[in-house]
Structures are given as structure tokens and as C-alpha cells.
Amino acid sequence: MSDRPVPVGALLRAAPPDRLPEVVADLLRRHFAAGHVEVLVTDLTLRRLAPLLASDGPDTSPGAMRCLGSQRVGTETDIGGRARLHLPLSCWGERLGVLQVDLEGRPEPEEAEQLRAVADELAVALRAADRLTDRYRRAQSQERLTMAAELQWDLLPGRSLGDERFQLAGQLEPAYDVRGDHYDWALNGDRLTLTVLNGAGEGLDAALLTVIAANAMRNARRRGADLVEQAELASDALHARYDGGLHAATLLLEIDLVGGWVDAVDAGSPHCLIGRGSEISQVRLEQQLPLGMFGEARYEIERFRLEPGDRMLVVSDGVHAATAGGTTTFGESALITALRRTRLQPPAEALGTVMRSLRDFHAGTEPEDDAVMVCLDWRR
């Protein structure tokens, strides 16, 4: 290993956006005498990792998946003392994948710290390069997306976000055929804005409606508008386009990350649940008109409060109202049980567990609706 500092950030910024994995692999081989190097990115379902350097299929090895879930460096040593490191690739809480590095032996603490720094720099570069090349999106997609799903995934802010105050994650299902369901978030100082939206209609029509609603709310939010103004601008935009024929059931939330107060506008069907200790309860809000149902609709803010350690889950009707073969709904029979099982898991893993429970609930039958879940842990 060279004693000179490794200018990995400068190398990545100078590299073409589609060549970042090769730049890092070359650096690791030259400065750390690494053998095998692989950059693994998560697929859209978060159940597999796709290699960027090899032509092999998805990687589901336990070491890589443990690293993705725990967000901790993992080391496996073979009988000859050679070590395989799995380093998490994450940026502002977003889990992008895993950097896999083979070394002649376990790294010393200083070397391990340098390797973690390489992984961190690569994660930031991958996030920045995502819209400049199709390489990483192509690897993430194990199947061809529908046009509606392409619009929805491109509209998302990411799949995770967090710092020392909170951890947030969201997921869409079915990943390759999602239609009108959507979530959005933005962090500004001590205020976290979160929306979950269920657009009416089917296929591309539902996705286009969602695009209009989400961008109208973003337009209002980015000029400093509160939740009422965001809801009213989006409602007016949808009504002007569809004349009430299509609308979007939406829950708008703004969380004070210091005091835990949550401002809410409930404009439709998404449900909000709070996990506090061993108890899980639904937040009862006054349901107002879905966005776009009527012209010049007016909305009001309600408030509730989170306590440190609370978990908040927001789910669309494709989750809480899902039925399978005419049985009771998922919200009535299995959702609370799934949430209790995930209480010790971080939000991203918890969503995966609940989504698996939802797929098991459908028992192989095709869901009638797409589904969105967003999970927030408030740490204060």
C-alpha cells in the first residue's frame, strides 16, 4: 500500500460518469494491492445486488446482503488468510449498493479507514452520475419497466434519507409496473416535508396525473409555500387538466425534527400509523377532498406529535386496503403483525419485510392496485 494519500475524489470527478467503477477498481489494485473488486448496486426491489464490473447475474451472497442491510463493513476470511471486504455504498442515508474488495489479509485499522473513505467517495459520485448515464439504471432493472413505472421511478427523490435526527425510507410495488402511487420528500433545515400520493386511473394515465400533482407540490414548496398552498396548487392544476375526472388521494406532512410536531393535510386515502414502544395505532385525521376532485378546493392543517423513538409508517390503499380472494384486507389482518415483527429493523429493512408480507398475503394472485410505503424513525 502506498503511503501517499489517495485522491479518490479528484479521480472520480475527472472520470467519465459511466466509468466510475473501473476508476475505483484500478485505484484499489494499485494502492491497496486488491485482487477481485466488484461494485454491486441494488435492484429496484432491494432484494438483489447487480454487479457493474462482471457479467455475472445478480449477487445474493449473504455477506453482501448483510452489509447492505446493516450498513456496516463486513470481512470474510478464507483458510489461507485472504480477506473479502464488503463496504456499504451509501450517500445521505441512501443505500446504493456494496463495494466488494479482496485483499491478501485483513486490513490494518488505518487501511480499513481509507477503504471506507473510497467507498464513501464512490457512493457520492454514483449518486451524482445517475442522471448522466444509463449504465447504473440498466444494472438496477432486472426486467423492462412499463412506461408508467419509468416515469414514477424517475420522479422519486431516492429510496432512503437520514442523519443523526431521523431515518427515512420508501418503496414502491410492483417495482416494474407501478402506476399512480408515489412518494416525495425534502429536507430543509429542521423541517422534513413528506407526501404520499395515490393517483387515480390506470397505467400511463395514472402516472401522468401523479407527475402533475407531485411537480405542482414541489413548485409550491420550493417557493416557501406551506402545506395548504402546496395542496391547493396541486389540486387546481389537476382540476384544470382533468376537470375532476381524475384526482389524487394524498397525505401531506411536514415534520419538525426538533420538537416532533407534525403538520398534516389529509386529502384522501393514504393511512398514517405510529409505532410507540410495543403499541401501533393509526393517526386519525379528518379526511378532506382528494386533490383535483373539485375546482378551488380549500384545505386545512391538522397537527399531531411524535415522541423520540417513534416510528411513523405511511401506506397507500394498495397496502392497507389490499384484498386477496375476497378475504379481509391486509390492513385488518396482517399489517400490524408485520409492523411488530420489524420494530428492531431500520426503516429500509422494515419496508422490505412488510412488502414480503404483502406479497405473501396475495399468495401468488395479481394485486389489484400498486402500493407505496414510507417509514420514518424519529430519533431527535
From TrEMBL:
Q: Which domain of life is it from?
A: Bacteria
Q: Which Gene3D superfamilies match?
A: 3.30.450.40, PPM-type phosphatase domain
**Keywords on record:** Hydrolase
Residues in PPM-type phosphatase domain copies:
163-378
Q: Name one GO molecular function term.
A: phosphatase activity
Q: Which InterPro entries match?
A: Bact_Sigma-Reg (IPR052016), GAF-like_dom_sf (IPR029016), PPM-type-like_dom_sf (IPR036457), PPM-type_phosphatase-like_dom (IPR001932)
Q: Which SUPFAM superfamilies did the record assign?
A: PP2C-like
Q: Which PANTHER family match?
A: STAGE II SPORULATION PROTEIN E, STAGE II SPORULATION PROTEIN E-RELATED
Record's protein name: Serine phosphatase RsbU, regulator of sigma subunit
Q: Which organism is it from?
A: Actinoplanes regularis
